[in-house]
UniProtKB/TrEMBL annotation:
This is Short-chain dehydrogenase/reductase family protein. Keywords: Oxidoreductase. It comes from the Eukaryota. The keyword Oxidoreductase applies. SUPFAM superfamilies: NAD(P)-binding Rossmann-fold domains (SSF51735). InterPro entries: NAD(P)-bd_dom_sf, SDR_fam. It holds the Pfam family adh_short.
Length: 317
């Protein structure tokens, strides 16, 4: 199937529908080796995808579940080994033929990031796609073990370091039919503030009560950093890596169930007093619909060669 005949994805498209629609494209062109594996006569081909932040009832989990339907190996991460295994078990139950590997990754510690990267670099499999989905969502001012404000550290500093340490492995997966991809799940919150103060004291450890620590301002800054991060990779790699950031839509996930987040979201009317989504103000996507944007950024050939990073992909709220 040529790019011209690929379907148009919309608001209600799910992640699994995207994986199925792109199947013939991601198997490679002109007889080249497939990038994402399809079960043909039970023979697998090679594709490895790593996704951070894959807890149940979240976007990362649904992204992993959909991709695992066709990828040779999906690596899922989380800081809690027991909860991470629950996600792996759920994917395996839904996709019995899926090859899922767990990786304990604590993004609140740079030492832990280095340890996890070393483990990935020791894998025999290549790494074709790296998806940064994890984020600090507790809504409370805290510092990491390295002394950084946790939201910026988990959402940007650690993903930056993790990507840098995995760059050789990503670059090694390149072929005549594939350019490695890095995907950062951002948010339309990039439009909800003044931008990022790039001075280190503000960026790394803003004082409690400072403008940067207002709930939505700090989230805006962290998500803006995701966009700049993806744009920087695209520009500095000279075309050797394609990086994209995206807004997945407004989605009710496990993030909204956390008390601190719920209080703030109720205050602006996003959630009702009972904690349920306020559909009178926002048009909400389901989790499978929200995860579709990530899958598009990871595999849609229509993004190839564009050399840009955007907070809006083919699907937007």
């Amino acid at each position: 199937m040529s790019s011209a005949t690929l379907p148009t994805f919309g608001f209600s498209t799910t992640a699994e529908e995207v994986v199925d629609a792109l199947a013939s494209e991601v198997t490679g062109k002109n007889g080249t080796r497939p990038i994402v594996s399809i079960y043909l006569a039970d023979n697998l081909t090679s594709c490895t995808v790593l996704i951070t932040g894959t807890s149940l009832n979240g976007l990362g989990f649904e992204t992993a579940r959909a991709i695992a339907k066709r990828a040779n190996l999906v690596i899922i991460t989380g800081h809690n080994a027991a909860r991470l295994q629950l996600s792996a078990d759920a994917i395996s139950k839904d996709q019995p033929k899926a090859n899922v590997r767990t990786l304990v990754l604590d993004l609140s510690s740079l030492a832990a990031v280095r340890k996890a990267a070393a483990e990935v670099n020791a894998y025999s499999e290549p790494l074709h796609v790296l998806i940064h989905n994890a984020a600090d969502t507790n809504g409370i001012y805290t510092l990491t073990v390295d002394g950084f404000e946790s939201q910026m550290a988990v959402d940007h500093f650690s993903p930056f370091l993790f990507t840098k340490l995995l760059l050789p492995k990503l670059l090694a997966s390149a072929s005549t039919s594939w350019v490695p991809r890095v995907v950062a799940v951002s948010s339309e919150a990039v439009y909800m503030g003044p931008g990022i103060d790039l001075s280190l004291p503000s960026l790394a450890k803003p004082a409690p009560g400072s403008p940067q620590m207002e709930y939505f301002v700090r989230y805006h800054e962290a998500k803006s950093a995701n966009v700049l991060f993806a744009k920087g990779i695209t520009q500095r790699s000279g075309g050797k890596i394609r990086a994209y950031s995206l807004h997945p839509g407004t989605i009710f996930t496990n993030v909204h169930e956390k008390e601190a987040n719920a209080v703030m979201l109720k205050s602006v009317g996003a959630l009702k007093e009972d904690g349920k989504p306020n559909t009178e103000i926002f048009k909400w996507k389901s989790i499978p619909q929200g995860a579709a944007t990530t899958v598009i950024a990871a595999f849609d050939p229509r993004l190839s060669g564009e050399g840009f990073s955007s907070s809006i992909s083919h699907i937007r709220n």
